[in-house]
User: Fold rRNA-processing protein FYV7 from Trichogramma brassicae.
Amino acid sequence: MYVSQVGSKSENNEKNEQNDQNDQDAPSEKKGKKYIPFLSAKQELKRKQEEAQRKKEEILRRKKEKEEAIEKYKQKRKEKNIKLSQKTKKGQPKMQGRLEMLLEKIQSTMA
Assistant:
């Protein structure tokens, strides 16, 4: 009996060692249930980070477009103000700039 018990203990030890090696080689097989939530959480985090990055880029793009539109408007307004504020030597307003603006306005409505 003693010999058979020793033999069975060594067989059990070998099986345990093989199981340990299998656990180390393929952790997703035996512990798959533990890794699936971790991986899904990791993927979710990555997706949220990408979404936040896209939102940030979109906000920056809109801000840049808005700044460009404001700058364009200010430039146009400045040119208009220069044309309207031209005066002669005696202080009378020059009509040339006003007529040019009226002509541009009429042409834009016709087009």
